[in-house]
Amino acid sequence: MYALKAMMALFDLGALGMLLALLRLTGRPEVWALAYGWCPLALKEYAQTGHFDPVATFFLLASLYTLARGRRALAGILAGFGIGAKLFPAVFVAVAWRRFGARGIALAAAALALLAWPYAGDGIRAFAGIGTYGMQWVGNASVFALVAWLFSPLGRLGLSTAMAAKVVLGALGAAGLFAVSRRPEATPAQLADKALVAVGMLFVLSPVQNPWYAGWLLPLAALSGRISWLVLSGTMVTYYAWFSASSYWRVVPGLGLPVDLRWLEYAPFFALLWLESRSYSEEESSRMDAPRPV
Questions:
Q1: N- or C-end of the chain: fewer Cβ atoms within 10 A?
Q2: Cα–Cα distance for residue pair 199/205, rounded to 1 Å
Q3: Are 184 and 212 in contact (CB under 8 A)?
């Protein structure tokens, strides 16, 4: 167990190093690296708990860096390794497929196939865990929980409200990724922003929002200066309070009403995210309306 935690700590440090390189490449102050390097959430969940998310984060950032430098083939290989560790780097490939090109995407698939080759003997059973996770797991959700609640009348008809919510949000997520893929990516900063929006969309719409998943967004948020994700890494402490507390803290004392700390967890984040999205939209409109040189 200690060897695994040490390995995750090394990948975490590697991700921090890639973040520093990307900050230099995008021209942002290097002090923003502290948003990830000093984040208590990442320290607790990676080096202390041993979640292997920093493996995928490292390869995602490495792929982003090499792609921004024009090395498509290497970027594809690194992205494939990241997807092999965890699936979330796949959404970055999905929105930056033009930049990767056919060769980069093919090499990403080849790298992923190489990692999967030792499990080829298991056939379809090798994907059983992914299927179970996608079909059955729900936890600490925000948008998903709201949509499932809206679909609750379907339960009276014997239909699964959770599955209905997954189908709707899956379609919404696919449409969102398509829209993001059409954004310009002329600069490394724009490419990093596309990665943030794609991975952020996956996180927000997911039926499972474990706190360590927010660690995926911290380096990308540092690259874009998005405060909302940094705030979320702090408010997610309420998840631990609810998860580990006795039943006394799960109901209002004396009233028996259930306590849902997700309002404290997510409301500040979504409020800030909305404000940042408005600011980004206004900047884009101003850039499009600005007179072009003749």
A1: C
A2: 10
A3: no
